[in-house]
Amino acid sequence: MVTQVDIAVVGVHVLDTHIIGVASIPDGSEGQLVETIRMSPAGTAGGTAVVLSRLGARVRSYGAVGADPLGDTLLTLLQANGVNVSGLMRTTATQTSASVIPVRPNGDRPAWHCPGANATLSLDALDLDDIVHGSHLHLGGPEFLGGTAAATLLKHAKDHGLSTSVDILAGGNPGLLTWIIEALPHTDYLLPNDEQVLGFTGTTDLELGCRALIDAGAGCVAVTRGGDGALVIVRDQTIEVPAYAVDVVDTTGCGDAFSAGFILGRALGRDFAASARLGCATAAQVAGGLGTDAGNYDLAAVDAFAQNQGPG
User: Fold this and answer.
1) Does some domain include residue 1?
2) Is residue 250, in this structure, part of any structural domain at all?
3) CA 80 to chain centre
4) Residue 246 within any structural domain of the chain
5) How many domains does the chain have?
6) Which domain covers residue 183, as residue numbers?
7) Arithmetic mean of pLDDT, 57-71
8) Residue 53 is part of a domain; what is its CATH number?
9) pLDDT tens digit string along 19-49?
10) Exposed, middle or buried, 190 (CB in 10 Å: 0-12/13-18/19+)?
11) CA–CA gap between residue 101 and residue 26 (Å, rounded)
12) pLDDT digits (tens, 9 = 90+) for 163-198
């Protein structure tokens, strides 16, 4: 166990329902048999929290969940994976955030999503002094707080000696970047995907886009590229890490898994390249199952997988 690493995860918590084997949406009121229907904890905070806990970190989640059966299920699943949920407030204003994800035989995964309680989260609802009782703060979905509030939260963490990371839920567009840009100078690790980087910066060159985000204040940009692995950019380094070969079941949550592996690698003192390799190897574990909590894996197993298999 990596019990010495205490991480606060703040932001978007979602209950995902995966449906495997959806060839099409039936006409009218007709039905269709499918292979599997499974629920799992997800979101740029919730999914990352589960994977961090699986890897051995002590994890505390903070955010908003509806006072409804969906919320009961989400909290139960988080707790079953070792996540401390005492920082998750319950609200009667709206339902728990949830997604339904039909996974087609070719791996495509369109989704229906209800933002729900995540949209009610505010800085006033967070116990900032409790959040900073640890070594790292991960903020998943800064767009829900807004740039000014996200910056306040991240600066508070930095002022108390924590490292920080940010993962963005929404798609990339310059307007969203403008909305959250105040948070970047207080972000040690920005963890977007390639489409977000290109959309935020309006460039077709991924490295140039990452460097534009560093110029805007981020200390490091570690960007996922799907089957092409990850690209890590710091001011004086460019690091490419390939993906690991795996029989893919569902790629939902792979970005959250990469974030967890990368964050934990840095917290354990691994360099940028080794942390990105841990992120990619962790993402491969999640891609091989259904949801962030599928299967059995821990840090030792992920490290062994990375060492034995090598990049694909």
Assistant:
1) no
2) yes
3) 18
4) yes
5) 1
6) 6-309
7) 98
8) 3.40.1190.20
9) 988 888 888 999 999 988 999 999 999 999 9
10) buried
11) 15
12) 999 999 888 888 888 999 999 999 999 999 999 999
